[in-house]
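Closing statement on the fe (iii) ion sub-project.
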Amino acid sequence: MSYFSEANSTATVNGRIGPDTDPRLATVMASLVRHLHDFIKDVGLTQEEWDYAIGFLTRTGQICSAERQEFILLSDVLGVSMLVDAINNRRPEGATENTVFGPFHVMDAPIRQMGDNITLDGKGESCLFEGRVLDLDGNPIEGVTVDVWSDNAEGYYDVQQPGIQPKWNNRGRFITGPDGRYSFRGIKPVAYPIPDDGPVGQMLAQLGRHPYRPAHMHYLVTAPGYQRLVTHTFVGGDEYLTSDAVFGVKDTLIAPYEQVEGGETLWRSPYDFVLVPV
Ligand code: BEZ
Ligand code: FE
């Protein structure tokens, strides 16, 4: 037995893991300790820096509430959310890719009829979203719940502005029929900053990073017998596509936005989703 030292730190700490520890927990914690100690040695972390980090994490916890999850935001801006998502959602060629879920989904949005308008505040440039939900062989899938949400024309989700925006503004759920088709009217989404008035926003500012996400429409696409799809479609040409604050953009998720002449909406955004069986 040797006492803790700089040289043996990782082995000493991990040597305390008991023999009856759950094997997966032992693997994860031993790796975490190894990487954490290597990081501290790599940068030669000072006492002041560690004290600052503890203060930062404390403030991150203190700002969390039922409405705000600053730790998830921290994970998002560090690319951790997207990395965990990528590792856990490796999909075959042709399947629609996942991206970050984000904090603004609300369960049990109203079920609407195909073609319905989800924009209740009358603001923004109207857009028809339509397409099909298909399996990997190109067959339409019936009974799919297409749950959609976006910000409003001013860059805020309804839940960020209770009492200002109508409840369920720019949200809804649509259930596909035998043709696998979905369609709804919303707005062409706009770019917006993630909540940046807390420790994560301060960190971004100190790192010279902006807090903006490129304009996107969120989708949660679920059907019995198929993997859950959490994704967005992005507006091509958005200035933040290559610098998304949370690294959510993928080439295949950039959707067409076509201007419509003399139609009911100013824009049309066609996009098909392809689901993978469980
Ligand atoms: C969003 O797209 O709604 C979002 C994602 C990650 C962090 C903040 C917002
Ligand atoms: Fe969003």
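The radius of gyration is 22 Å. With this model delivered, the sub-project is considered complete and its resources will be redirected to Aim 3.
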